[in-house]
Amino acid sequence: MDVAIMIEGQDGLDWTRWKRLASAAEDLGFAGLYRSDHFTNPEGPHKDAIELWVSLVYLAVNTSRIEFGPMVSPVSFRNPVVSAWAAAAVDDLSGGRFHMGLGAGWQQREHESHGFDLLEVGPRFDRFREGIQVVSTLLRSDTPSTFEGAFFSLKDALLLPRPKRPGGPPIVIGGNGLKRTLPLAAKYADEWNAVFATPERFAELSTHLDGLVKQHGRDPGAVKRTMMQRVTIGRTQRELDSKLEALDVENLKSRGAVLGTPNEVAEGLAAFAEAGVSRVMTQWIQMDDIDGLEVFADKVLPQLS
Predict the structure, then answer these.
(1) CATH of the domain at 226
(2) 231 phi and psi, to 5 degrees?
(3) Overall number of domains in the chain
(4) Whole-number Å distance between alpha carbons of 139 and 130
(5) How do residues 40-78 score in pLDDT, each as one tens digit?
(6) Tens of pLDDT, residues 77-126
(7) What are the C-alpha distances in Å from 219 to residues 51, 192, 237?
(8) Which DSSP symbol is given to 149?
(9) Distance (Å, rounded) from C-alpha 27 to C-alpha 46?
(10) Distance between CA 67 and CA 256 in Å, rounded?
(11) Which domain holds residue 260?
(12) Is residue 6 a contact partner of residue 37, using CB atoms and an 8 Å limit?
């Protein structure tokens, strides 16, 4: 199992922080750098939030090793045709390091504030399914394609130049929903990303996904299994306690969060590896805590390699 960094881009991301995080991920040995795609947080004051695709182009040009992408980009305010077009270009620019994370959208505040219709859950996921189909078709089809949906459509559509990577960048679908998300991942995804689950729950969901994948005539091994999870690390117990002071620790632990000193974090992450997680996207809430990332890289990554 390898470890990537994931940050909440709507929570104060500016260029100074993004450049610093990119350098840290690249230089310290993390597998990747991922970010959310939101205008703002669900509540509280508005904060800096660099636009997603501009920030990803920066990574494509200014890093050479790490993988990266959105976790995840909503089709509710990102037209899937434009997203597929951008994804192919950014993947080529980076030499094949981009992952196309797609989502249905969920946050009411940002949709209302910026004039996008979130929709009720049922039609929202109908739109999501169509968005995935559009992205998948445009990235994977080398001939003009036609698609007619209730929300999106194509008519003799073909993206050129074709992606250098056969089939384009991998499509990532994130979430734990048994009714809607996992069936979509089973049919369309190259990678399924679970969110805030314990190792035991992840194993249950992954086994369920295996069955769904087989129903579509696919090999379960064709769908990579990753996890987004909260991680907080302190060199000492005192430092850790200081970082956790204002947090609901019991709630975080109930959702599988890994909180501890370096050896404890390594042990906690190893449990996810045993459950079948191939990559953990470490949700790094304190994006200015580069010192913590250095401790992570120095004390934890070697134990997982």
Answers:
(1) 3.20.20.30
(2) -135, 130
(3) 1
(4) 14
(5) 999 999 999 999 999 999 999 999 999 999 999 999 999
(6) 999 999 999 999 999 999 999 999 999 999 999 999 999 999 999 999 99
(7) 36, 14, 44
(8) -
(9) 31
(10) 24
(11) 2-304
(12) no
